[in-house]
Prior knowledge:
Blueprint: E1 8-17, E2 23-28, E3 35-36, E4 39-41, H1 48-60, E5 67-80, E6 94-104, E7 121-127, H2 129-135, H3 138-176
Parallel strand pairs: 1-6
Antiparallel strand pairs: 1-4, 2-3, 2-7, 5-6
Amino acid sequence: xxxxxxxxxxxxxxxxxxxxxxxxxxxxxxxxxxxxxxxxxxxxxxxxxxxxxxxxxxxxxxxxxxxxxxxxxxxxxxxxxxxxxxxxxxxxxxxxxxxxxxxxxxxxxxxxxxxxxxxxxxxxxxxxxxxxxxxxxxxxxxxxxxxxxxxxxxxxxxxxxxxxxxxxxxxxxxxxxxx
Length: 179
């Protein structure tokens, strides 16, 4: 079958952020210097949300209890493989990614890259958006731009919401104090 006629493999890609607003970036096993967000094929027997949780458990060893909010972003990205992996030959021509914003509420010790029989990553780090743009594998950065923009908008809205809450609290305290 011609490669162009093959479908794209559904894929979930996660922007996992910590309490400091930094993003998880992992270095792939067997590909020194290849840094990326956790991602994986979306299996049809699971919901998209279940696929996200499954991939995070498999790739990062993160338990559900260490996750807070989980939000599907608007961004999507399709790409064709230059050389399809063995599992994709004759089945898919590339991947269509959906992106998910995932709050990590645990500590760094709750991340265990070796928890799965075939680890995806050999190392990891928390990165700013600028660091992701500089460190992620070049061919991945283009697909990351829209979800990174959504992440920055999310952070800005969250910060504005906190300021609004803090201002309301201060106003409430002044009112109660008779000021």
